[in-house]
Amino acid sequence: MDGRGTHGATGLGALRRVCDRPEGDYRVLSRLPGASWTDVPEPPDVDRALECMQHDPSASAVLDLSMLPHDQKLALVDRALRRIRAMRRQGRPHWVLLDEAHYLLHEGGIGADAVGLGDRGFCVVTYRPRWLRASVAAALDMCIFARTTNKEELVYVRAMLAGHRDAETVSGTLPYLSPHFRFDR
To answer: Mapping DSSP to helix (H, G, I), strand (E, B) and coil, where does residue 90 land?
Structure first.
């Protein structure tokens, strides 16, 4: 979860590092200027990890929950997002990156009241967009696609883009993309 403001190049670099990382390896992000990586096994660790952003407007906090069971991840991310929503009322963090969002923002996952997608400033990373709640998909302003060959995901993306002037071109291209493709809604 990133508290960085308008530092676009750093934010894009962080996103690239998240997308290119080996599964579960978030420690690499601690090398970014102002970033701290924290393994978060317990609720008080969430609060401690987010404290840096209250004192330093350029700080970024990476909360690593990769080694926890799913139900524990949901509880800790819920706690973190509620705390972040409260912090945002005071001006930061500006951006929140949720990796593996399909495991968090599905029906029965973290509640909309905790996430606050209407507050904007979210980067939702997923390779399974069809698992996201409809309200999450509807709140997305921009989609960055990578190569997608899963038939169910392609059907979902076609439906999601229905009515957009480039929908057929985009959905027909996804199975053949190489690195990344940006699509603004």
So the answer is: coil
From 78-87, 88-97, 172-181, the region with the lowest mean pLDDT = 172-181
Answer for the pair 183, 142: CB distance below 8 angstroms, yes or no. yes
Q: For residues 29 and 174, give the distance between their C-alpha atoms in angstroms, rounded to a whole number.
A: 28
**pLDDT single digits (tens) 144-180:** 777 778 888 888 888 888 877 877 787 777 777 665 5
Distance CA 54, CA 66 (A): 24
Neighbouring CB atoms inside 10 A of 26's CB total 18
Residue found by looking up tokens 């978060």 in the block: 40
The full set of domain ranges for the chain reads 8-140, 144-185
Q: Record the pTM.
A: 0.74
Give domain 8-140's CATH architecture. 3-Layer(aba) Sandwich (3.40)
Q: How far apart are CA 29 and CA 158, in angstroms?
A: 33
Type of residue found at 29: L
CA distances from 86 to 38, 54, 116, 147 (A): 20, 11, 11, 36
